[in-house]
Specification:
76 residues; mainly alpha; 74% helix; 0% strand; flat
Length: 76
């Protein structure tokens, strides 16, 4: 654990060298790249949910039943 302050110092040094870039200031990422990154994130999120449902079947079943009840009671 003695190397933790060194890691924190190196992170602070890196963050000072790389200032946070606001997308409105500098459009370094194209719209297509942003959509691809978002699609990849959503795929990984869906995969993680499926994995969680497989390893916790009881919780997944109650969530499905709860969702079905919400859909039945929804009114336009």
């Amino acid at each position: 654990m003695p190397d933790l302050p060194e890691r924190a110092a190196s992170r602070a040094k890196q963050s000072s060298q790389n200032p946070s870039q606001n997308p409105s200031e500098e459009p370094s990422e194209t719209e297509a790249e942003r959509r691809r990154r978002r699609a990849r994130f959503l795929r990984e999120l869906a995969e993680a949910r499926e994995l969680r449902d497989r390893v916790q079947p009881r919780r997944a079943k109650t969530a499905r039943l709860r969702h079905a009840m919400r859909m039945r009671t929804f009114r336009w």
